[in-house]
Amino acid sequence: MNSEKPRFQYHKVYQDIRDKIEQGIVKQGQRLPTEKEMQEEHGVSRDTVRRALAKLEQEGFINRKSALGTFVRQTKSDYQLSSMKGFSEQMRSRGIKPSSDLDRIELSTSVKPHIREHLRLPEGEKCYIISRTRKGDGAPMAYETVYIPYALCPDIQKYIDDETSLYDVYENVYHHQLGVGTIRLEADIPNQKLQEKLGITRESPILLMNCVVCLMNGTPLYYVDCFYVSEKYFFSTQIYR
């Protein structure tokens, strides 16, 4: 009887947490209580709590992050490379509410040479630089910096807030017709700023997407560097032979 008790206790803790996740009582991306708090809640040992958490992690329900805590695993968003959609459109299509934390918006003539080249921006011409943390249901998903020539979107700062979709602004304010986008993807390691903005550690892998999008007439409209939390995304496309 006594030999079965620890196993029963561990399974009871495991099932309680799993039920809360499956019933939506705790949401995707939400931080779970600490091990100490779980001990007190269930009246069990730390070893029992850790066994329950290990099983939940093994089955893909949670992620345990060093120094940050235990979080409910988020379903990865599929960034489809076969169609041109903005972050807000991609989130809404999955039933997720998009939002942003605006970090900076400035008008500058100081732009890195490779970005100036991508935008075909003459030396001395002004460019908007917009940095935002992109969120899904309030959780950080990505951090982006967008470069937009002033000549194509003058006074764009008037139309930007925490809910703004730049694609809406491009198409419905400036009436631009978007054409072709060129994307480059690579793995990267988050620096201190990205760790803070995205709520991740240095050990958390990220995906860097560089993208330049042109208008129908071939004029480059914007260039973006976007850092995606890799545990929240996968990228897909269709290919033909």
Q: What labels describe this entry?
A:
elongated, Chorismate lyase, 2 domains, 7 helices, 241 residues, alpha+beta, two-stranded antiparallel ribbon, Arc Repressor Mutant, subunit A, single chain
Task: Outline the structure in words.
The structure is a single chain. This protein is an alpha+beta fold and 241 residues long. The chain folds into two domains: 71 residues, Arc Repressor Mutant, subunit A, CATH 1.10.10.10; 160 residues, Chorismate lyase-like (Chorismate lyase, 3-Layer(aba) Sandwich), CATH 3.40.1410.10. The chain is 28% helix and 33% strand. The protein is built from seven helices and ten strands. The protein is elongated and about 75 Å long. The model has no long low-confidence stretch (mean pLDDT 85).
Give a nutshell description of this structure:
The protein is α+β, with helices and mostly antiparallel strands.
Please describe the topology of this protein:
Elements: H1 5-22, H2 35-42, H3 46-58, E1 62-65, E2 69-72, E3 77-80, H4 87-92, E4 98-108, H5 113-119, E5 127-136, E6 139-149, H6 166-173, E7 178-188, H7 192-198, E8 206-215, E9 220-229, E10 233-236
Parallel strand pairs: 3-10
Antiparallel strand pairs: 1-2, 4-5, 5-6, 6-9, 7-8, 8-9
Helix pairs in contact: 1-3, 2-3
